[in-house]
Structure formats: structure tokens, C-alpha cells
UniProtKB/TrEMBL annotation:
GO terms for molecular function: 2-methoxy-6-polyprenyl-1,4-benzoquinol methyltransferase activity. This is 2-methoxy-6-polyprenyl-1,4-benzoquinol methylase, mitochondrial. Keywords: Membrane, Methyltransferase, Mitochondrion, Mitochondrion inner membrane, S-adenosyl-L-methionine, Transferase, Ubiquinone biosynthesis. It catalyses: a 2-methoxy-6-(all-trans-polyprenyl)benzene-1,4-diol + S-adenosyl-L-methionine = a 5-methoxy-2-methyl-3-(all-trans-polyprenyl)benzene-1,4-diol + S-adenosyl-L-homocysteine + H(+). It is an enzyme of class 2 (transferase). It comes from the Eukaryota.
């Protein structure tokens, strides 16, 4: 088969992303806490708050990695359910990398109540093996920037959500507010790869993760991409001085 240069670039990116996440899987959750000084917990908490899970909800968390967001959604569904006998719902953790999912499954206490709601699915966000209009909510946290074709992933999100269903995405922004920018640059280019080297013995993977943030579209452009995929009531909320954005929209 002959590949155009775009295909080669795309398959190189997919291969690189696969290798990076297989390498970081065992240390991923610890690194998240160290690199964000625990802030990722706050950001994910806000994501779940805006999602507003409800009893019986069928939710999909894409690029779900070790299941951190999905676990929070499942716990929140249970917290909203007054009747333990009623159908509780489901939360599917979808990721393209089986090593990340395996790490999450290994860590999950099977007797924890939320474990009963969770399902693990190896799949590509750009071609989801799910029916049209089949989920009530769709989340993706810090995963979109690693995807090869972001427009295709957004179209898939729109296809599988039911009308009225909410799309929510947490992602780093390539630029913060001007007061923070120099500190943010120094932190991400020097401190994060060093934490990667010392804690995970893997400086290169963390350098790649920082670079992928720099290449991600600006929040305004990404908001337009979400609109173009068919979502409405599209919003981009800046969190923590613009380090992270919470993007949202509804399928109309
Ligand atoms: N959402 C998790 C969290 O916030 O802790 C994990 C985020 S991790 C930075 C990014 C994840 O995106 C990785 O597990 C990676 O395998 C996954 N990923 C990258 N490209 C993907 C794709 N096309 N489809 C599904 N998952 C993908």
C-alpha cells in the first residue's frame, strides 16, 4: 500500500501515542497528582458537577485511561440514586490503549459499589463501536490532544450521544493568561520532564506530553470545531487562569 505523507504523519502520531501511554500506564495516576499538584482532581470534580449525573444514566468516558473520570461519574450516579434496587445505569471507560485500561481494572476494588456500573472498552474515539443516540453523556479528559483526527472524534461524540445529551471535554490550553505564561512555560518544559525522569524513569514520554499541549488548538478554535461537529450551546470555560478549559455542548 502507498501512503500519502498525511497518512504517514497520522500513523506515526498514533504509534507514538500508543508507546507513550503503554510506557506511562503504571505510574500514570501518581504522575497526574505530582504534575498538576493535585489540581486535576479539582478539574475533574468540576467536570462531573457540570455533567450532573442522574440515576439510570448511561455514560461514556472516552480516552478514559485508568478510569479516573469514569469512577467519579459512577460514584456520583450512585450518590444521586435514592433507591438501591432501581436500575443504576452504566459508565463505559473507552480507551485505545489496553495497557491503560488494564492498569485501571487492576486498581479498581471489585467490591466497591461503583465497580458494578463500570465497563471497560478498548476502542478508538474516531470510530466508536456504539449505536447512534445511545449514551446520555460523553466526557473526555486530557485525551483529545492525543487523537489523530479530532474532527472525526467530535463527529463520533455527536453521533453516539442522544439528543439533549451533553458533551464535556477537559483540555490544557496552549496559552494561559499573560501573568502566568512564563511560570507555566518554565514549569512544563523543565519541571514536568524532570518529575517524569525521577518518578517514572521516562523523561521522553513526559516531554512528548508537554509538546502535545503546545500543538493543541486555541480554545476559540476548538470551540468552533465542537460547533462544526453539530453541538449547540457550546461553551469554553477557563479554569485556573486558563491552564485548562472545560469545553461543553449539547446535541440538539
Ligand atoms: N482521561 C484520563 C485522565 O484524565 O486521567 C486519561 C488521560 S491520558 C492523558 C490520554 C488517554 O487518551 C490515553 O490513555 C490514551 O491511550 C488515550 N487516547 C489517545 N488517543 C485515543 C483515541 N484515538 N481513542 C481513544 N483513546 C485515545
Amino acid at each position: 500500500a502507498s501512503f500519502g505523507s498525511e497518512d504517514v504523519a497520522a500513523s506515526e502520531k498514533a504509534g507514538r501515542v500508543g508507546a507513550v501511554f503503554s510506557s506511562v500506564a503504571p505510574s500514570y495516576d501518581l504522575m497526574n497528582d505530582l504534575m498538576s499538584a493535585g489540581l486535576h482532581r479539582l478539574w475533574k470534580g468540576w467536570l462531573v458537577e457540570q455533567l450532573a449525573p442522574f440515576p439510570g444514566m448511561h455514560h461514556l468516558d472516552v480516552a478514559g485511561g485508568t478510569g479516573d473520570v469514569a469512577t467519579r461519574v459512577a460514584r456520583d450516579i450512585l450518590a444521586q440514586s435514592p433507591d438501591p434496587e432501581a436500575e443504576q445505569g452504566s459508565v463505559v471507560v473507552c480507551d485505545i490503549n489496553p495497557d491503560m485500561l488494564a492498569e485501571g481494572q487492576r486498581r479498581l476494588d471489585p467490591s466497591a459499589p461503583e465497580a458494578a456500573l463500570m465497563e471497560w472498552m478498548t476502542a478508538d474515539a474516531e470510530a466508536l463501536p456504539l449505536q447512534d443516540d445511545s449514551v446520555d453523556g460523553y466526557t473526555v479528559a486530557f485525551g483529545v490532544r492525543n487523537m489523530t483526527n479530532i474532527d472525526a472524534a467530535l463527529r463520533e461524540a455527536h453521533r453516539v450521544l442522544r439528543p439533549g445529551g451533553q458533551f464535556l471535554c477537559l483540555e490544557f490550553s496552549p496559552r494561559t493568561n499573560p501573568a502566568l505564561q512564563r511560570l507555566y512555560d518554565a514549569y512544563s518544559h523543565h519541571v514536568i520532564p524532570q518529575i517524569g525522569r525521577v518518578v517514572a524513569n521516562d523523561e521522553q514520554s513526559y516531554k512528548y506530553l508537554v509538546e502535545s499541549i503546545r500543538r493543541f488548538p486555541d480554545p476559540d478554535l476548538f470551540r468552533d470545531m465542537i460547533w462544526d461537529a453539530g453541538f449547540r450551546r457550546v461553551r469554553a470555560q477557563s479554569l485556573t487562569g486558563g491552564i485548562v478549559y472545560l469545553h461543553s455542548g449539547f446535541k440538539s
